[in-house]
Amino acid sequence: MDSSFREDSIKTFMKSWKNVTIFAYSKPKGYSEETEFLRKPLRIESLFSRIVGIEHSPTPTSEPEELLWDLNILIAEDNDVNQTLFKKILASIGADPEKISIVSDGIQAFEAVCKQDFDVVLMDLMMPVMGGMESTKWIQAAIPNEKQPAIYALTANVLEEDRTKCLESGMIDVITKPINRSLLQAKLTDFVKSSKRP
């Protein structure tokens, strides 16, 4: 990984992340088994790597899926570093980079889906102007059922009550940050196979 990119990225996160909770030993009650915890003393690069999933995100267990090449994918994420990272992850598992669009808030996500047919939307929950859940509800109300995209929540919060709220808003699944590439590949592959796409 380029050192200048890492340095700039760390600075970006230090400015944009206001609260990071670190649990030294035991996992608090109420968190799912997918939650990752860091031990103290903490190295800043270890924290950064876990957040953006660069060094610690497992590589795909299989070759890139040809099935994903035809997907039109929208990333709704306000963090510039995450936008770049998520697009690279999608390309690494078989998505066509030319068919990946990016917006920075929930209003932009809603407008994008109204203007263009997307197969998949990766929707961050915490965004300025409008959050992911509200944007999803708008999309559900405005887009005909046959043109509804599959909306996946992107969040670092994996409490069961948060997952339930996402599903109730119309999202079909929750993907936790940092993104596990193999898991994302499996979810998107299952989506394509279960849909009626050629």
Give structural attributes.
198 residues, alpha/beta, Rossmann fold, 2 domains, five-stranded parallel beta sheet, 41% helix, globular
Brief summary of the model shown:
41% of the residues lie in helices and 12% in strands.
Describe the model.
The protein has 198 residues and is α/β, with parallel strands linked by helices. It has two domains: 3-52, no CATH class; 66-194, Response regulator (Rossmann fold, 3-Layer(aba) Sandwich), CATH 3.40.50.2300. Helix content is 41%, strand content 12%. The chain has seven helices and five strands; from the N terminus they run ααβαβαβαβαβα. It has a five-stranded parallel sheet with strand order 2-1-3-4-5, sandwiched between helices. Helix 6 (160-169) links the parallel strand 4 (150-155) and strand 5. Helix 4 (106-115) runs parallel beside helix 5. The longest helix has 14 residues, at 3-16. The model is unreliable at 16-26 and 54-61 (pLDDT under 50).
CATH class category name of the largest domain: Alpha Beta
SS elements, strand count: 5
Largest sheet features: 5 strands, parallel
Q: What is the topology, as strand order, of the major beta sheet? A: 2-1-3-4-5
The CATH superfamily of the largest domain is known as: Response regulator
Number of H/I helices: 7
Sheet/helix structural class: alpha/beta
From the alpha carbons, calculate the radius of gyration and give it in angstroms.
17 Å
Q: What is the CA–CA distance across the termini?
A: 37 Å
Strand content: 5-15%
Poorly predicted regions are 16-26, 54-61
Element string (H = helix, E = strand) = HHEHEHEHEHEH
Overall geometry comes to globular
Q: If classified by CATH, what would the architecture of the largest domain be?
A: 3-Layer(aba) Sandwich
Q: Any idea of the CATH topology of the largest domain? A: Rossmann fold
- For the record, the count of structural domains works out to 2
